[in-house]
Amino acid sequence: MISIQDKHNCCGCSSCAERCPKQCITMYEDEEGFKYPYVNLNTCINCGICENVCPVLNQAEVRKPIACYAAKNPDEKVRMNSSSGGIFFPIASKIIKEGGVVFGARYNNQWEVEHASADTIESIKRFLGSKYVQSSIGATYQQAEQILKEGRKVLFSGTPCQIAGLKRFLRNEYDNLITVDVVCHGVPSPKVWRDYVSLLPMKGVYDIRMKDKSSGWRQYSFSLIGEDGKTILSEFSSENKYLMAFSHNLTLRPSCFNCPAKAGKSGSDITLGDYWGIEKLLPGMDDNKGTSFVCANTCKGAELLKSLALQIESADYDASTPYNSCIYQSTTEPVERIDFWNFYQKRGVYAILVLQPIKQNIFNRIKIRLKRLIK
Ligand SMILES: Cc1cc2nc3c(=O)[nH]c(=O)nc-3n(C[C@H](O)[C@H](O)[C@H](O)COP(=O)(O)OP(=O)(O)OC[C@H]3O[C@@H](n4cnc5c(N)ncnc54)[C@H](O)[C@@H]3O)c2cc1C
Ligand code: SF4
Ligand code: SF4
Ligand code: SF4
Question: Average pLDDT of 100-106?
Answer without folding.
Answer: 98
